[in-house]
Design goal:
By secondary structure, the chain is α+β, with helices and mostly antiparallel strands. The chain is 31% helix and 27% strand. It has 16 helices and 35 strands.
């Protein structure tokens, strides 16, 4: 099998090709104005390197930050929002949390709602929480709303009516009335189709973002497919979804909200696979690219999954602080993200050094790229400290003089320190912020990180991984082969998968197993229809949301295989009690209730076989000055392709490869395995 995987990040676009068991990679600068251009440049490069004809590509898998960027940059299509009479202010009121320095900002003002009030409409209708119709839909009023929406010329409509997750009849009828009046092909998105769960506000924002992003994603994927066809690649296009599976391009366009965490999810999948190959089931994925650093937790070999997260969140919760971004209620791998990537800009404000979240991106990029950037970044600091080589990455050469000038002017001079001290300070602050991301997915989840292995992925991660591990008490670091394109490599092994849910509110002790089984069977059938998977093909995972009666938030707990029984429900409740105690340290046995039923169907990926690494290629030994322990030391520099599997090495040293630079501090030792992965361990104190 010949498979292509591509991941478009904020700074770099990564491409991985597997043909005849051999892996070929390319890392090109992202082209923000036309992301497909940088992608195709990398595709052409790996195809030429492998001597493979474009028509022979059997599978094309893609991860993209498009959906996230559209939301953050407000570049979606004009959308109208329709809700129940009396609830038109829901989006304006929202949920606001003032965090960090905002708490003391006397001029603070909440962000603009995702849809201006002029495009929010109400219709007379009312459904009770149990699905009973209290007020029938006023169809005459609904037609008048349809006329007003049509006059606005919007490109999509989002509908979220009160309690439609319990009874969607009004939403379906309202959608039909709107479709009659709108131009043919205008998307009309209902919350009961996107994500029919409890919580009107979160359900509304999820539906709204699906309508807001969907047309942009659809147009992008159509252009990409056409450009690939022009290049001779006719393989079906699959897009990474937030929970770690992939979707056919058509489904990804219609459920674009499910692709918001597309790229970061691929990194955690890659980390879990690499850990499994080493017999490790407790992992912390550390994915550091040019714009951000992400941390994710893998327990018992499975990535953690959340069913609500924030886009554009702030604060010390790794971007997940409720009330600081747009809440999205779809399954996503549980990640914490901080604005500390290689391109994160260092700046001084009121005598305080800050790093990120602003990024130099691909254009102009860090100062050392020599592409017009003048502001210092984490990459510039790492170059000055000797952690990176001027040879750079692939075709990209780094210019130490430009890095020194930027750091001296914008950090050293304002703080009254020399350029090396400035670089060390930038490096340390970036590391502290990355430690926050690890803290969010471990300690704040009731997990001690010290018994886990840190898996480094992304072009900048190996440079910072060992230092980050020391900061949080981790003693083992795993750096996979071709870690600089780790997320793209993870795409090759992602299953075709989709999840659906539906509210199922009932006291756990009195829940009807047969009714729950019927709901889950319907969700499974809908998932199979989405993926066009007939019969019993693929795997099915069933779960329920459980919370204490009277509380707002629920845990997702898996159900065992087979039909739902009273025993299965009771076992799920016991698992909920254990999870609650683990997370909060409180041993409660109060009455619990079910909140939602979920079914996920996965079709295992037809992943290509990958051979071991090529035989070592001898390379002359050399040294370089690098900063360790507050001083420069002359340390060995080794090329990973020249290392012999099983040969040990000790820090301090630097191991380089075309896409990354692995820094091994003093007190650490490691070994290269026969697949090209490096295992690092910290020696005894």
């Amino acid at each position: 099998m010949t498979a292509l995987a591509t991941d478009i990040g904020g700074t770099f676009t990564d491409v991985v090709l597997v043909a005849d068991g051999r892996v070929h990679v390319a890392k090109t600068l992202t082209t923000p104005d036309d992301p497909a251009e940088g992608l195709l440049r990398g595709v052409r490069r790996v195809l030429a390197d492998a001597g493979v004809a474009p028509a022979s590509v059997d599978r094309f898998t893609h991860a993209t930050t498009l959906a996230t960027n559209v939301i953050l940059e407000r570049r979606g299509v004009p959308v109208a929002f329709v809700t129940t009479r009396g609830f038109g202010s829901m989006l304006v009121l929202g949920r606001q949390a003032r965090v960090e320095e905002e708490r003391y900002d006397l001029a603070f003002s909440p962000g603009e709602p995702p849809v201006p009030p002029s495009r929010v409409f109400e219709v007379p209708e009312r459904v009770a929480a149990d699905g009973t119709v209290l007020t029938p839909l006023d169809e005459a009023a609904a037609r008048r709303v349809a006329e007003r929406v049509a006059d606005l010329g919007v490109a999509a409509v989002a509908i979220c009516l009160l309690h439609s997750c319990a009874n969607d009849a009004h939403e379906r009828r309202l959608a039909a009335l709107l479709a009659e009046r709108l131009p043919a092909g205008t998307p009309v998105v209902t919350s009961s189709e996107v994500w029919p769960e409890l919580g009107e506000y979160e359900r509304a924002t999820t539906t709204l973002m699906s309508a807001y992003v969907g047309p942009v994603m659809g147009a992008y994927l159509r252009r990409l497919r056409d450009r690939l066809a022009e290049a001779g690649i006719t393989a079906p296009v699959h897009v990474m979804e937030s929970a770690g599976g992939v979707l056919p391009a058509e489904l990804a366009a219609s459920r674009a909200v499910c692709t918001i965490e597309s790229g970061p999810a691929a990194g955690v999948i890659a980390a879990a696979r690499e850990g499994a190959r080493h017999g490790l089931t407790g992992l912390i994925s550390f994915d550091m690219g040019g714009t951000t650093a992400k941390a994710g937790l893998v327990r018992d070999g499975r990535p953690g999954v959340t069913h609500e997260f924030q886009v554009g969140g702030k604060g010390s919760f790794g971007g997940r602080r409720p009330g600081t971004g747009v809440p999205i209620k779809v399954p996503a791998i549980d990640l914490a993200e901080v604005g500390s990537g290689g391109g994160s800009i260092a700046w001084v404000e009121a005598g305080t050094l800050r790093v990120g979240p602003r990024s130099a991106g691909a254009a102009p990029g860090p100062a050392c790229y020599g592409r017009g950037g003048t502001l210092p970044t984490v990459t510039d600091a790492d170059l000055v400290l000797g952690y990176l080589a001027p040879e750079g990455f692939g075709d990209l050469r780094l210019r130490p003089g430009l890095a020194e000038d930027a750091l001296a002017r914008h950090v050293g001079k304002p703080l009254g320190v020399d350029v090396v001290e400035a670089a060390a300070a930038v490096h340390d602050i970036a590391g502290a912020q990355m430690g926050t991301a690890v803290h969010v997915v471990t300690v704040r989840r009731g997990v001690d990180p010290r018994g886990f292995t840190l898996v480094a992925l992304g072009g900048a991660a190996p440079t910072h991984a060992a230092g980050l591990a020391e900061r949080v008490g981790i003693r083992r670091v795993l750096v996979p082969a071709r870690c600089g394109v780790g997320s793209a490599a993870g795409l090759l092994h992602a299953d075709l998968a989709i999840e659906r849910s539906r509210s199922f509110l009932a006291p756990a002790a009195a829940a009807d197993p047969a009714a729950l089984e019927a709901v889950l069977a319907g969700l499974e059938a809908a998932c199979r229809a989405d993926l066009a998977v007939g019969g019993a093909r693929g795997g099915v995972t069933r779960s329920v949301g459980i919370r204490f009666a009277g509380q707002a938030h629920a845990f997702t707990v898996g159900l065992g295989p087979g039909p739902v029984t009273r025993e299965a429900v009771d076992a799920a409740v016991e698992e909920f009690y254990a999870r609650y105690h683990e997370s909060y340290g409180i041993d409660l046995r109060d009455p619990a209730e079910l909140t939602v039923a979920r079914a996920r169907v996965s079709l295992p990926a037809d992943a290509p076989d990958v051979r071991g690494t090529d035989p070592p290629r001898p390379a002359p030994g050399r040294t370089r000055r690098a900063w360790f322990g507050g001083a420069f030391h002359e340390v060995p520099v080794r090329e990973r392709t020249a290392c012999v599997p099983g040969e040990p090495f000790t820090g301090p040293c630097v191991i380089i490869e075309p896409q990354a630079s692995l820094v091994v501090p003093p007190g650490w030792h490691g070994v290269l395995d026969d697949h090209g992965a490096v295992s690092l361990e910290r020696g005894p104190e």
